[in-house]
Write a structure and sequence with these properties.
This protein is of the alpha/beta class. It has two domains: about 120 residues, Rossmann fold (3-Layer(aba) Sandwich); about 100 residues, Winged helix-like DNA-binding domain superfamily/Winged helix DNA-binding domain (Arc Repressor Mutant, subunit A). Helix 1 links the parallel strand 1 and strand 2. Helix 2 packs parallel to helix 3.
Length: about 230
Amino acid sequence: MVLKGKILLIEDEQVMAIALRDGLESENYAVEVASDGVNGLKLATGNTFDLLILDVMLPKLSGLDVCKQLRAAGNEVPIIMLTARGQELDKVIGLRSGADDYITKPFSLLELLARIEAVMRRTSKPSEPLETYEFGDIWLDFRKHDARRNNQPLELSPREFRILQFLISHRGEVVTRDQLLDQVWSYDSFPMTRTVDTHIAKLRQKIEDAPNNPRYLVTIHGVGYKFIG
């Protein structure tokens, strides 16, 4: 068994904490659990972890305060925040406090795993931005916003270029709708996840031979999308 990483889970709901710990350990993560913010901060400060999963609403010290104190102390451990609240403002506050990602309860283990993999990959090593890419009969130049299909000009909007660039940069991996919203849309625009679905549908009309049976932009039901190509 190859250990994928060491995770500190700071969650006061016992049933949730046990379920998450068991699920993550089944995926070869080592998991330590803290049930309040003070103990969680102590563990995070005194030990080395690859990732923190941090509930916003915690006894003794809130998740936001834990995050702020870690960042103020120079601790750059990747942090995914959990909350039962789905308001966009809470999301912005959490990210501005120094969190790397944010997920709203209830969520599936599959979605959390996708977030963990994306955050750990993103924070582990810098990556060069994707400049050009070719798949099937499609050729893309992200620097010049030039797209071609069968060597003929293909009209894509700037946002469609950004969606493709992000998905292709994570090709073969599950990308959630929230990840796309975070990376492609600005927070002050308050977009909805349905917006992502609409743009994906339009992209499929432009790049897929059979948009209703896509080969490249594949839906992962209940989670998001995967680019295969």
